[in-house]
Amino acid sequence: MSAEATNPEARPEARPELRRRGRTRLDLRRLGRAALLGPTSRDRLPDAIGHVAEAHRAHHPDADLSLLRRAYLLAESSHRGQMRKSGEPYITHPLAVTLILAELGAETTTLTASLLHDTVEDTEVTLDQVRAEFGDEVCFIVDGVTKVEKIDYGAAAEPETFRKMLVATGNDVRVMSIKLADRLHNMRTLGVMRPEKQARIAKVTRDVLIPLAERLGVQALKTELEDLVFAILHPEEYEHTRALIAAHAGERDPLPAIAESVRVVLREAGIAAEVVVRPRHFVSVHRIARGRGELRGSDFGRILVLVGENADCYAVLGELHTCFTPVVSEFKDFIAAPKFNLYQSLHTAVATPEGYVAEVIVRTRQMHRVAEAGVVALGNPYATAPAAEASPDCDEERVDPTRPGWLSRLLDWQQSAPDPDTFWSVLRAELAQDGEITVFRADGGTLGLPAGASCIDAAYAQHGEAAHGCIGARVNGRLTSLASRLSDGDTVQLLLAQDASSGPAADWLEHARTSAARIAIGSWLQAHPDTAKPAATPARAPLSVVGARGGGGNAVADLPDATVRLAGCCTPVPPDAVAGFVVRGGAVTVHRIHCAAVAQMRALGRTSVAVHWRATADCRVTLLAESFGRPHLLADLTEAIAREGVEVVSATVEPPVEQRVRHTYTLQLPDATGLPSLMRAMRDVPGVYDVRRA
């Protein structure tokens, strides 16, 4: 898509024949695919800025093109005499980068900065000149891109230079948009470089820039970059995939017929929709081939349905699932729960009578624009800022209201990353994560976390350093370990200790996936080395308090002179339905009728004995209380039990595990009807989260 700088003075207004004839809009995916499948002829542009202007007007009909023309004139005159390694005039590079962004729908300010993105770095043009000629906004972006352009991709320089890239992106996401388009054009023309340099640039593109493109939602750039990297780093697999696609081109493709059937169904349902077949790109075909083995005709593309409104998406889905056989496992609703990179669509798959399975994507046209262009489609995120905030100094940081959550997290932790090597390793690990999940907080808010995140990650995402005192979590209403992994859509309630001196355990690092959590935990452990590496001590035995033990309480067995014992596994109390069994020594053990031990006793052939309760109301019961560890907890619990007039027969307190403590009490109650009141009183003790019968 490179252009040549010819006659920059010529304008479309002065060339009416060009305006009347018009040009076909360029398709980035088609051009990228054609470039991979084979060389294409390059047409010489009659007007160097003409294609950019037409592509821009296609998305922004009322755009003022005078700014672009002035930027082009400055760039062309500044770069005049400079050549690319391919032998082309250097101005073809900023033109090509700008055309890529114009096709994606970038607004005028971004395109202006794109035309000028190399002038400050490679020519005598200064930032002050850019500011005076084009304003503070363009100056800010050009300055950000210039800092990114200074990055040395050598192994020794990678940590700090990518930190600069991250900060520049956080200051204005349009900086990374230009950088990604810049890298795409460079990758398209990488053939003039030595193979080892091609491989080095491709690896950096794979490890950092493609994941960033994915997270910024710029799928049109991400997919072509993936294919170009694939061709360089995996030439044999690339050639095999290329052969598969070429062979499929000569066969009957079932997708157009399926797409026509979908059009008929939607037309009869009165739903206005555009139905097209979208070929898969090389890497996608390669992944499908690896996962399914032999490919069928419908595996080489997907059907895209574009509608006007969100409600139409679900109407289309209903018609598809009614008139075709749906593959339920393939359904995903990214409209109700958008992905972390702004992506929204309905995904489904339908089976045809001929046995083909076609994947279908349903989205509105606005969703489609965002799905292809990501943050580029959002326009100027500062357009609504007050005038005082809309003209920042080029060195100041500003807050982007559309900044993705993952980028905010990266910017937060990069400031506290202890050293460049840690930053680099954590950045690559963060970018290598496949996706993001959304979990709901107890207060109704949401948290965006990487797939595989644990309750520990949720704690630090919600509470920051206050999460050091997290002592437990409830997921979907059930108490769970902090190490538990979260799933998309979970509701998580995080429980914090009242003791401000509480800190994380060393094993939290094994379960933390987010950079923010790992760095915060590591910093705390370094500041508290005695806590991080506790002295080796023998395991503590449970603390036991034993009082006078009774026998069967008020249970009576229909067996003369038999010793009656209440089973500790289920601790029956009046008026529980019970069963008795004779055990060794002639004693009768009494169980609740639904206790699992009853079936075992019967299977062992134990003699069953009828058991009934005495008329007296007193009883003995064993209760399990689970709590978070804190000072004076045992005293508070026993005091609550005493206030209910209950005698403690025995008590066992187990050593804390993840700051949780388990208590076992055997209690003598004066009246069985007081058991619910006793359990409520124990639950009301601060720190106790569950009380139940053994």
Would you give an account of this structure?
The chain is an alpha+beta fold. It has 26 helices and 22 strands. The N and C termini lie far apart (73 Å).
Task: Report the biggest beta sheet as strand number plus sense, adding barrel if it closes.
Answer: 6 strands, mixed
Instruction: Indicate the proportion of strand residues.
Output: 15-25%
CA distance, first residue to last residue: 73 Å
As residue ranges, the low-confidence spans are 1-46, 152-157, 384-403, 532-541, 543-550
With helices defined by DSSP (H or I, 4 residues minimum), what is the helix count? 26
Helical fraction equals 40-55%
List the helices and strands and how they pair.
Layout: H1 16-21, H2 28-37, H3 50-59, H4 66-79, H5 92-104, H6 108-115, H7 119-122, H8 127-134, H9 136-149, H10 158-171, H11 173-188, H12 195-215, H13 219-233, H14 235-249, H15 255-268, E1 274-279, H16 282-292, E2 301-307, H17 310-323, E3 325-326, E4 332-333, E5 346-351, E6 357-364, H18 365-373, H19 405-416, H20 420-432, E7 436-441, E8 446-450, H21 455-463, E9 470-475, E10 478-480, E11 491-496, H22 515-527, H23 529-532, E12 543-546, E13 555-557, E14 564-566, E15 578-582, E16 588-592, H24 596-603, E17 608-609, E18 611-613, E19 619-628, H25 633-643, E20 647-653, E21 660-669, H26 675-683, E22 688-693
Parallel strand pairs: 2-6, 7-11, 14-16
Antiparallel strand pairs: 1-2, 3-5, 4-5, 5-6, 7-8, 9-10, 9-11, 12-20, 13-18, 15-16, 15-17, 19-21, 19-22, 20-21
